[in-house]
Amino acid sequence: MITKLEQLRKKAPEGVKRKVSVACPYDFHTLLSLERLRKENRVQAVLVGLENEISKAALSCGISLSDYEVCSVDSNDEALDVAVKKVSSGQADILMKGLISSEKYLKAVLNRNSGLLTVDSTISHVGVIDNPNLDRLLIFGDAAVLPEPDLKQKLKILSSLVQTAVMLENPNPKVALIAATELVSNAIKAGYDASVIAKMSERGQLGCIADGPLGLDVAINKEASEIKNVRSVIKGDADCLIFPNIEAGNAFYKANTKLANSTVASVLSGVKSPVVLTSRADSIESKYYSVLLAIVMGLN
Q1: In the list 101, 171, 248, 281, which could disulfide-bond 243, CB 3.0-4.6 Å?
Q2: With pLDDT > 70 as the criterion, what percentage of the chain qualifies?
Q3: Is the pTM for the entire model greater than 0.90?
């Protein structure tokens, strides 16, 4: 089982180049992550955006644009449109976000004319956290797309997290549905939805071990689970976390990266081609591993 993001490098072998279409690559985090991947012979990249901004960014971090395809456009909106179409038309394999807001990026991806949407899929965000305080990776969602997922959407999120876990060589992951309390109450929707999903898991309908509602501490920490005497099949050993809403998921994401020195790989699920979705403030490492995760997804 893959327990560290560094192990993704073996699943995305050098020499199997994938073409990455990058919208608005004006920041050194994005460019340096791509440069590392290029030097490892894993990717080719087409940089789509304002030519003067791309040149300025490349100069600031010592990257030669002769090693890249540069596609000059007149606006950032056009850059998004062109970058998306390069992937949907087969001219590139992976879509990547540069220095552009997630809201605008998602709007371009989710546009019915983007060519990246399937007929009936639910698009959601999948994050893989490598936290130095844990002995395993944590796969979580949704932190970027679905504001208030309903029961049906949570089941779609669960399916995406489980598929990612299996891809990372964990065939029977433990999935915790996070809430503020372990008590089931009609007053707390997250708890009610979690209890339904837990019962579905108990009856073998989901292809994983799922339980909830669970507080975050009980889900990921065995000592907390024992102290609180919570009867759960998870027992502080969750591999996957489903958050009740986007605020909780996003706060978890940012707290891990900014307070716990974690690295996160972030992609979208439910799209035709791999789509990287990182925060503009994410580290070079996070953007590097996000592309690696997208490469691995594309190989499966």
Answers
A1: 248
A2: 100
A3: yes
